[in-house]
Amino acid sequence: MVGEGGAVMPLELIHRVALGQDGMVTTTQALAAGLTRDHIRQLCRSGRWTRLSRGCFAPGGGPPGATPDRVRIRAAVTSLGPGAFAVLGSALELHGITGTRRHPAIHVSVPVDRPRPQRRTDSALVIHQLTVDPDDIVDVAGIPATSPLRTVTDLILRLGRYPAVSVLDSALNRGFVTPESLATVPALVRGRRGAPAARSHLGEADGRAQSPLETWARLRCVDGGVPPDVLQLEVRDEDGHLLGLGDLAWRAARLIAETDGAGPHGTPEALFADRRRQNRLVNAGWRILRFTWSDALRPDYIPHTVRQAMSLIRRTSRPTNPH
Q: Does 146 lie in the same domain as 103?
């Protein structure tokens, strides 16, 4: 809204500020724009604004649960003042690395040389005091956060095997870390709680996995004694034309396992493309198995199904004796 003489009204100015901050404004910014503290309280009571964290608001309103994660993280970091930065799962979310279940908790670290703030009214906020080298703190769209390598390192010390390897796979696949940078992690975790398990997780990381579901399916097969011998197998015809990629493959058995998550495989167009690709692979002599998250959550189901398929392939490929 524009007032007399072309002056921008406070709420319009605030919304402009919010657009550059993921939809968030601070009390200081609102006061500078011309609002009063009473006005801010009235906007929150009416539901037009949503309180995100101490001194931080979403002018668009709406239920707190509908607020995007990044603005909630931005608000939490901002509310804790200079020196605060996102860590652990919140830093992972900012970088766009997958592999863990989404959780409402927001993890922020504050400097170790000041008292840890008490935020009993912000139940989702978890405040840490981690010792982090300044070089390991980066800017993500204006939000301080631990670097991808430091974030991954901190998390694999705390996570179980399957989510830890999923995080490593995602970070490698998306180019946030490299095999060379991960080679430095054992030295970084030496002496820390969880270091032996973290080193083991590093040995299982594979950046060819394109989703956490692929990672889980691979680990289920490893644990079940039927590890795939190749990931993202390129299947080509006699002329070298690409027929399709197989998520997990056992080349000797000409067996491929595909993982169907809720993301890229969920649209009608993707389903049609998957079916056409599967037809090409089957016509080229490959057998296809398909697995979902519900399958991956059952420890024995995927390897059992793979073993059954291999057994059937061996039986049907044996020459029959004529009588």
A: yes
pLDDT digits (tens, 9 = 90+) for 232-241: 999 998 888 8
CATH code, 218: 3.40.960.10
Give the domain range for residue 41: 1-66
Q: Are residues 91 and 185 in the same domain?
A: yes
> What are the structure tokens assigned to 222, written together?
């490893």
In this predicted model, what pLDDT tens digit does every residue of 240-283 receive, in sequence order?
Answer: 888 889 999 999 999 999 998 766 555 667 777 778 888 888 98
What is the C-alpha separation between 200 and 218, in angstroms, rounded? Answer: 16
- Counting the structural domains of the chain, the total is 3
9-18 own/partner pairs: CB under 8 Å, 24+ apart: 10/34, 10/35, 11/35, 11/59, 14/59, 15/59, 18/58, 18/59, 18/60
Decide: helix, strand or coil at residue 201: helix
Which residues of the chain form beta strands (DSSP E)? 25-26, 50-53, 56-58, 85-86, 106-109, 125-128, 137-140, 143-146, 230-236, 242-250, 255-259, 287-291
pTM here? Answer: 0.87
Tell which of 40, 66, 92 closes a domain: 66
Owner of token pair 């319009």 = 12
Q: Is 149 a member of any domain?
A: yes
Q: Are 242 and 229 in contact, with CB atoms under 8 Å apart?
A: no
Say which residue the tokens 């991808």 belong to. Answer: 148
Claim to verify: residue 22 and residue 103 sit in the same structural domain: no
Q: Specify whether 74 is located in the same domain as 203.
A: yes
Tell me how far apart the alpha carbons of residues 59 and 49 are, in angstroms, rounded to a whole number: 4
